[in-house]
Design brief:
With 535 residues, the protein is mainly beta. Helix content is 4%, strand content 53%. It contains one helix and 37 strands.
């Protein structure tokens, strides 16, 4: 059924395109003549706008309909600027109308282009030019089939000044163009910085600043970072500039690999041309910009499966800074306890901080079973103490505390097996950060409204390892159901989030176990994977 609907939607989407492609008044790929009822002559061309001459007399611009022509043989001549002239004969009859569909052929000529070094340029400077009109061969020449008219051909090469020439292409001509390029002076342009404020403890692209700039010619350079007192806290020699676009990444560390204190820093890029490629006096080109290290911008992705941001089974007190957000999507699978005969449960989640210390989280999940179900959960969390967001990386037992409330609802078959079910949860997570680890403890009070008004208690715990390219952690949850003779439900889950290429994108894997009683063989296992982005 789904496949049939997909094919129908695809046909509806493509049907107008198919009609347009087959409309004789719009486009056709070859000459075609058709006789229909009526009398006279109809001439259509692709493209439209061709001047029509019948037996040497101008009869207008295509498309043309001439109903009063008598039967007999006629000579047709079609002209249009930039296209080859078309000549053909037609025979008309009183008993039918002739429609001619004519393909106009663009008039083109071969232009020979050669790109050369200026005679006074250094021979040893690499020369790999490119042109806007086509592709050069190994000897920097090209034969380009170009339409008639005036054209501008631009040549560009790293280390050489951009050069352009104009060429007039006329019918029955074979123009030849030589483009001479001069050595470019060494300059730095289009400098940009990805983050003027960042936290080196964040993962992926959120824990670095990227400097992008363009150089006009080969050169050497140094990357230097100064603190607010003007002292050098970090420097390194950059790789030789062998291409136009350059990238430099700084992760907020000093010369010894330790995160620097919070504050303002000056970034200097010192660059110069290579001596062997120039006869002029070498001058240093200096680019200066500022960036701020701010440890209050604690941004890293968290699991959203239970409707609260944290590890799989334990909320974290950490909140995003104002304006930051995360969204992800993933699938789950399970065995020995959960029947999933047709498809995997799917979920999509998001978290957002409208102001500092306040965070909203929501999750929508679908269980596409034979009797499909869905559920939604949302939470509000406020961080009222965050000792880890102080002025230096090296903290003495920093503690963070938050409190929050969440609500989950699901219809039949819609509950996620990683949540506690329908109802209201009150939670108060506490964390202790000893870099690179974060340790969490969180008591939870769950009210399974409207199914029951007897509360359940839960205790969550876990630890998280954070680095620039991975966050991984292990969480535990013991849930006590006071309504059913203090029934204990135990859960354990592992969560790993990878940041490929120091980007805002992350990929996550998860796995774990659930049991209705501790230390029994009646266990259920689950796994999952997904993808998301954080900003």
């Amino acid at each position: 059924m789904i496949k049939t609907r997909f094919i129908l939607l695809l046909f509806i989407f493509l049907f107008p395109v198919i009609l347009w492609a087959n409309d004789p008044e719009t486009s056709f790929s070859r000459d075609r003549f058709e006789e229909i009822e009526g009398r006279g002559l109809v001439i259509q061309t692709n493209p439209r706008g061709a001047r029509v001459f019948i037996n040497g007399i101008d009869r207008g611009i295509t498309p043309v309909t001439l109903e009063n022509l008598q039967s007999g043989e006629y000579n047709i001549r079609l002209t249009r600027d930039g296209f080859k002239e078309r000549n053909f004969n037609v025979t008309l009859f009183d008993t039918s109308r002739l429609t001619a569909f004519i393909e106009m052929e663009e008039a083109r000529e071969i232009v020979t282009i050669t790109v050369l070094k200026d005679p006074f340029s250094p021979e040893q400077l690499p020369f790999k030019p490119e042109i806007s009109a086509g592709v050069l061969s190994n000897d920097n020449t090209a034969n380009i089939n170009m339409p008639l008219g005036n054209h501008t051909i631009r040549a560009r090469a790293f280390g050489w000044e951009d050069t352009s020439v104009s060429v007039l292409v006329s019918e029955n001509s074979t123009p030849s163009v030589e483009i001479y390029m001069k050595r470019a002076a060494f300059t730095i342009e289009n400098v940009s910085q990805s983050r003027h404020r960042f936290n080196p403890k964040n993962s992926g692209d959120l824990g670095v600043t990227r400097i992008r700039f363009e150089v006009s010619a080969p050169g050497d350079g140094n990357f230097v970072v100064l603190d607010s007192y003007g002292s050098v806290v970090y420097e390194r020699k950059l790789q030789r500039f062998n291409e136009r676009v350059q990238h430099v990444i700084w992760d907020g560390k000093d010369l010894n690999g330790f995160n620097l204190p919070q504050g303002l820093y000056s970034i200097l890029i010192e660059a110069n041309a290579i001596a062997e490629y120039t006869t002029e006096v070498i001058e240093i080109v200096l680019i200066k910009m500022e960036t701020e290290i701010n440890y209050s911008m604690d941004i890293f992705s968290l699991s959203l499966d239970s409707g609260t941001a944290g590890l799989t089974f334990s909320p974290l007190p950490n909140t995003l800074p104002a304006g930051s957000y995360q969204f992800d999507a993933g699938i789950l699978f399970a065995a020995n306890g959960f029947s999933l005969p047709t498809a995997f449960p799917f979920k999509i989640g998001a978290r957002f901080a409208p102001i500092d210390k306040l965070e909203l989280t929501s999750v929508f999940n679908i269980n596409p079973l034979e009797n499909p179900g869905w559920g939604i959960s949302a939470s509000l969390k406020y961080n009222f103490f965050n000792g880890s967001n102080s002025n230096h990386e090296n903290q003495n037992l920093p503690v963070s505390i938050a409190a929050g409330i969440s609500y989950a609802w699901a219809n039949e078959n819609g509950e996620s097996f990683l949540s506690s079910g329908r109802g209201i949860s009150l939670f108060a997570p506490i964390s202790l950060e000893l870099p690179p680890f974060l340790y969490i403890l969180c008591p939870v009070l769950f009210l399974p409204i409207p199914d029951s008004f007897i509360p359940r208690a839960a205790l969550c715990a876990g630890f998280l390892y954070k680095s620039n390219w991975i966050n991984t952690g292990l969480s535990f949850k013991s849930e006590f159901d006071l309504e059913n003779d203090i029934k204990i439900k135990f859960m354990i889950g592992a969560d790993a989030r990878f940041y490929p290429g120091l980007s805002n994108l992350f990929i996550y894997l998860q796995a774990g176990m659930l049991t209705s009683k501790m230390f029994t063989s009646n266990n259920s296992f689950y796994g999952g994977l997904g993808i998301g982005m954080i900003f």
